[in-house]
Structures are given as C-alpha cells and as structure tokens.
Amino acid sequence: MSHFAPVEAFEHLARHRSLRELVDFLVQLDKKDVLVVRQKTKELQREMNDWRRQDRFPHDRGAQLFLAGLATYSRKEALGRSFDIPWNFLHNQHPKHSEGHQDLFLTVLRHARPAWLTEWLQRITRSNPWQVLSYDQLRSLADEGLVDYDPWLFAQSLAHLLVRYNWQRNAVKSGNIHGYDQQILAFLQADPVLLSRDLPLLFDFDTMVDSASTFTDKDRREVNWLTLLEQLVKSGHLDRADLLGRCLLALRRDFRRPLLTWFKNLFLALQPTTAERLERQNELVELLSHPLPLVVNFALDQLKDLWTEPGFEPAPLLLYAEGLLTRQDLKTALRSLLGAFEKLVKRQPNLAPTVARLTVSALTNADAGVQERAAKLLAGLLGAKKPVLRADEAAELTATISLYTDLLTAAARTTLGSWLGATPSTDPASAEAAVYAPVTDFGPDISPATALAPVADWHELLFLTGQVVQQNEPAAVERWLDGLLRLRGQYPEGYAQQLRPYLLQVLPWELKGKTEAEAAIILRETRFAEGRNGRRELLAALLISWFQGFPELKVRQVGVHDQKYSNPDPLLRVEQQRLAAVEQQLQAGAETLPLLSTPSHAPYWVAPSVLVQKLLAYQAAGHLPQAADLALALARTAFRADADAAEARQQLPQLQHAELRALLGWLLAPADVEQALPLLTPAARELASVVQTVAKKFGQLNPFRQAQPEASVLPLAEALPWLWAVAARTRRPTAVFPELEPLAAGPGVAEPWHPTWQFERKSNTYKQSWNKEKPEVTTVWQELSVITQPPGKRAASPLLLYALHAGLPYTNQYYLWSVNADLGFLLSLLPNNPAPLHWHLLRIACRTDSQGSEGRDAVQQFLTSLLVPGPAFDESTSVLLAMGLVHYAPVCRALALEVLLSAIATGRLQPTDLGAALGKILATEFAPLQRLTDGLAQARAIDPLTDDALRQLLNALLPLLPAAPLRNTRKLIEAYADLQGRTRQPVPPAVQSRLREWSSSATLKKAATGLVTA
Prior knowledge:
Radius of gyration: 35 Å
Strand content: under 5%
Helix content: 40-55%
Mean pLDDT: 88
Structural class: mainly alpha
C-alpha cells in the first residue's frame, strides 16, 4: 500500500465522516503509517487555525484532529501549547454535544497508550484547571496503568469533583435533585481509597476546593467541600484531630488568599476546644511568621484565650513576636499581641524585660491605635507599684523610648509624657523656613546631565529594536526612531535577516514555523486594518516595512479609528502621521532629516536650541517640517529653560520661514513678556460637492466597505493656525485666547478645557427567584461623572492636541480598554500641559471605586509618570492623585503616597487642591476614609516641610467632610492633631467649626476638643 493511501483516507474521515469511523481507522493504523498521519494531523491543525484562509479546515471538526493527535503524536507535539482537550471529551452530560466522546477518548488511549499522557494531563490542567479529567476517569486510567499516580493531578481532579456533580444537576430539567447532598456524601463514604489516599492531598496542593460547589433540593442549598468534610468528621469517616492538624499545616503554605481563607474557615467550622488548640499551640505560633495578615490574625485569635492557661509556653511566642511587631500591615493583630504581653507579664513577671524590649519596637508602627496600646503597656511596666524592671533596665528602656519621641502620636506621647526627655524648643526662624509653598515657575533641566545620547551605531540600533518590540518603553522608542533616520546609510548589507527574530516576536502566531516564502506573503498581506490597534501596531507596521525594504508604506494602513469594540486615543492619529513621515523618508532612500519631536533631554523635553537647529537643517535641505511632527515638538518644547531658550532666540533670525519664525518667537519669549497672538483663521479648503458628500454617506452605510487609510497629511501652510493653537495652549495652559475663537468652537482651543466633576448615586436591583428569604438584592454605589460644557464635539483638526479629548463622545468603556497599552507613551507627549489627558483619564479610569484591572493599571501608569520632574500639579492632576491615595488597590495607594512625598519635596504639590479633591471624594463615601488615614500615618514625622504640607492638605479637607462623622474620622483628627503639634500653626476657623460639630460625638469628643479654642 502506498503511503499516500492512509493519509488520503485519514483526511477524508477527518473532513467528512463521524468520530466513530475515525476511531476505527486509528486503532487499525499500521505503525509504519503513524508518522505520515501525524504530519497530516499537524498540517490540518495549522490550516484550521489559519484565520487568513477562507477554505480552512472546519473548526467544529477539531475533535477529529484531537483524537488523531492522541493516537499519533510524539511527546514534542503533545506538550505543545495548542494541544488541549476539547470540552466535549470532559463529560457526557449533554447528549446532543458529548454523547460517546469519553468512550472514544478512552478507546484511543487504550490503543495508543501514549507514554506522555501523565505529563500532558499535568500541562493542560496547569494551563486551565477546568480541563482536568474527572476523578473517576483519572482513577480508571491509573488502575489500567495508562497514567502514573501523580498526587498533584489527583488533588486537582478530586477538588473538581463537585463541579462534575453540578454539571449532572444541570442536566436535570428542573435543575433540582432532592437529597443531592446525601447522595454525594454517600459516594464519598463508600470509597475508602478516596478518603484515605486522595482526600488528604487537598491540604497539600493549591486546588479549586474553595470554589467548587453544587446545589441540593428546591431551596438550592449550597453543597461544598466545607459542609461535606464537616459531615464526614461527624460520621467518623475522617479523623477530627488529623483534619485540624492538616488545616494548620495548609495555612503555612504559599497558597492563594481565598484558599487560605477556606482552610481557616474549615478549622473554625470544626470548633476546636481550648484543649485541642493548646495541644497545637506550636503550630499556631508558627503561623505568626506568615506574610499575609489574614493568617496572622487568625493565629492570634486562636491563641488569645490561651495566654493564661497553665499549659501555654510563652517562649516560642516571644521569639516570633520580634519579627511581628515591626510589620506595618498589621493592626488588630498587634493590639491583640500587646494585650497578650500584658497578661503574660502578670502571670510571669520575669518576662517583663523581654516584653518591654519587644514593645518598644511597636512605637514605630504607623497606626495610632497600635502606638497607644504599646505606650499604655510600657507605662504600666515603668510605673508598676511593685517594680518588674531593675533600675538599670528601667533607665535603658526610658532612654530607648526617648529616641522615638518624634514618631509618637499625640495619644502615645501623652501616655509616655513622664518618661520622655524634654524636646528642644523650635527656633522661630526655622519654623518659618519649614512652611511649605508650591513652586510657581518650573524650569526643566536642559543640561549635559540630562541630555539623551544619540544611537551610536548599527549594533545599538539593533539592540534598541529588541527593547521596542519587547517593552515598548517610550524613551527607548524615541531613540530608536531617531537612530532609524540618522543611521539610514549605515545599515549593513542583508540587515533584514538580523531583524527576523524581532518579527517573530511581533507576529508569533502568524510566522512561527513558516518558510521564507510563506512569511513574505503573510507580511505583505499584514495591514492591521481592523482590531484593537495602538502604538504597538504602528511600530510593528514600521518594523515590517523596514524588514521588507519599504516596497510599500504600511503605517498609514493601520486602523486607529473608532471601531465597535475599540476607541483608540485620538493622539495616536497624530503619532500615526509622525511615524508615516519617518517611513516615507526611509522609503525615499535619500538623505534623511531628524524628527523635530524626538526628545533631546530626559525625560521627554525638546530643548529650544535643538528644535531651532533641526529647523535650520530642514531649511538647508529645502524641506518643510511635517505638521504632526512639529505639533508634538511644540508640546514638548522646554520653553521655560531660560538659558537654552535665550540661545534659541539668538538663532531664530536665521530661520527664513517668516510664519515659523514668528510662531517660535512667541513661544520662546522670556517669561515676563506676554505677547498677543495674531488674529488666526483656518486655511481655506475646497468644499466637497453634494455628489461627493452623498457618495461618502452611502459608502459609510455599506457593511462590506474596506477600511480607508487616514486622511492625507496637512500641508504646513494650512496647519499653521492649528500650530499656533498648540503653542498658545502649551505656553499658557489656563489662559483665554480670543484670537483663537475663529479657529474652532469648544474647549481646548480659545478656552482651556476645565470640566466639572461630581458623584452620582447609582443602584441596581436584581432578582433571585430561588431565594425565598431574599428574592431581591439591591446594590448601591457612587459613580464619578466628568461633565464637559458644552458637550463634547470632535476637534476641528487632529493637530489640536489639547482639544482632542474634550471632544470625545464618551458613551462606552472601550476608551479604557484601548488606552492601557499606550498610556505610558501618551503621558510623555504633553509635559507642559497634561491636563486634557488627565481629565480624560479621570473619567475613564476612576468612574467607580473598583473599576477592575484596567482602571488599576491606568492609575498606576499615571502615578508613575508623576515621579519625574515637572510643573506644579493643576486641578486635574490633584484629583487623579486624590483618587490614587484612596484607590482600592494597595499598589496604587502605595505609589500615590510615594508621589505625594516626592511632590512635596519638589514643590509640585498644591495641598489646597488635593485636600479639596479628597474632601469631595470622601464626603460622598466614594471610598472609605481608612484608606487615607492609613496612608497619612506612614507620612508622619518625615521632615518639617512634609508635616506642614500635610497640615495644609487637612485644613482644606476637614471642613468638607460631613457633620455626621464618617467611620475612622477619629484617626483623621488624631493625625491632624499630631501635625498641629509639630507645626504649631493655628487651627483655621472653618476647621474649628467642623471640629465643634464633631465634638458632640462621644467617640470624637476627646480627639476634637483639644483642637478647638474657646
């Protein structure tokens, strides 16, 4: 028989016949034909996943290829990432789709007996826990010797058991099975192998045991592993003592937080007695070293009533406490621990020196409650009627406490006042010097220290190409673009082959395993016309053009227009024009000119003298600058770098283009010179005819129309009015320019975009008919609304950089989904006036308190951009920083605190604006107050300047909080009292008025009364 006959027969069966017929073919396949069928299976698999082919292998017949792979693949193919188990082969609960699939699956396995089966099952389960084989099926394969007994794999399968039962329940018409929990329990009780060998594995591995569940009876009571394990203990099928010990061992492991919570809940559900906990005191104490507060709090809660028990041994506790008391992520646990110390000293006075030494370290904790509890314990030890410390020990303790005086809160300082040394009085001159005042004028550092070195040679350019592909870091991309143009004549012969590895990273699915000829066809047809395109796709298009030698211009073919599920940032259209200009220069093959907008100094500044020198180079070559490139250059120009701007003004007379000379002369004028703008009108353009307009409308309605490339580049003469608008809004962000009114209506041109923002109370009610006790559930939340007056209208030109975001028709969430990949770059474009982008970011990333990972990542990127030098924060930046300080994600709050301290040190912070924004956010309970108090506690006593800035912040914040105090208001008042004690400034009348209202509250009276003057 020819080798082609089995291949042809296999392809016919795979394309046209049933699974049963294919399996019959596979089990009768000669060993000598396995290799050719394997190759054909791989070929059909590639064909099925080739989205460019119109006649590709039907995706709904992928089950045929799966079984063929199961029968013929070697270990290499089986462990590849594309060979997964189809859903139909996981269970037989849906006759229409899965009838007989498992039987066929087992038939092929028993025939082929692949040696890689265990490894493959491990791989697919790690990649997706829902792909795990059923427990019965896995046990059967192990009994037949087809898979090895792998504890991890069996733990995953057993944890998934209740999900399988839930699938069976869903197959019942009513969805309800009477006594389903008892049926499952009986199955477990009848399987001694499961109970003795496999069930303990749930405590050894990270599984989905915490989330797997089903329902029983008409009331839909949940059946989960927690309830089942309790019943197995009560019935005597599981040993209670063994289960308690395994829970504590599991809590020591590096598992997911929800899984650790599940083990904690299981331990509590078993209701261990005092004697059982005392027997396991060492295991509980060892949990105090766990990195998660959840576990530490649980351990201390289980230990708290054991301190006075005769069988409790304090030595291990004191050993672990040394590392516990310095942690800043614990509050309740530390207060409990300090309470334990007090009880231990009463029981064993000889522990007092050790307890005192440990307690002192708690004075460094940022939480006022922890400090106060530690201070009371220390005061009790030092002032005990019957001394528990020797004189030398007491003296040493007193001296140590005095070292922490500056870190103590007001309550702790009052408690320890008798043992604190006298603090030197503050000199009036130094107090005056410590008053915080924000900078008014910012001058970028344009010096050799911040100058960006140009790309040296081809090798560095190639290295930068890898960085651009892998990281897309804005600064590296800008140097890469500059190097592409400057080194145009220095590319080595055959350079394209050196770029090939980077193309594989850009298009891995399309190019992997392709021949040179196939890759050439794919690259020629790749246009990025549709989909969620951004700057990465623009750079990929430029890289492909570079690799191919620029036979065609690809950058303009990238679709960065609004689509159904994608709204690219409007600044990307300006970037597309800039990159298209780079591509066009490189295609021409002649001498290239540098981009005007590539930064000359870190982080993203264009030095005025460098900009003028580049324009003179354009003039010498007889070329006019490209409008988009010049617009971005104007936005990045460091016009406040006085020395460099003066040098640029001296070079300006050499510039022959009168309009450009006037434009740059206005932008680079000295800070004390305010010149009027010329009266500007948009350049006249030929109006489209009625026929053209109608044809365009009909074209837009055609669902089969091809995406059109972006509009042609605007000539410099027509772009000049828009460039004047960019320069005006760059130099004077908040000014009103009547001269620009003829250009365009709407914010961001003649007037700055300064929207209002407010919170709206939203609610949603959903029904759960199966729950008789609670048939309706209503959720309520606060939602941020950024209001533009007048309503958004598209900017008249894409070159109006500061008006593009104000005109967006904000009607969906796709702006946020589209922006994250490009946000680092976008934040580098407008260093002089980032307000429009910040307002846009506020309305898309901070709409609700918990806006998911996209909102978190956007806020994180925004906060990172504030850590570099820049002008003083405006209102938009202050509001976004306020959102970061009370963000639901701890990583954002930590980063926001770093930004706050950095902004104080550099004078960028506007404390009144930030305080007002925080007051508005917290007053509506958009976010809990504790998030702010926790952050402010970490900023205490850093230096006098920081203290005064925070005092000014709270002076603006406190009057805006409601008269009915929010939860944790006492902590905020205590923080304010601490700052007042350090800065010795008077309390403003507005703050005093709010404090008087709060003093009527029993919980706030003590904290507020001391700050109110008679």
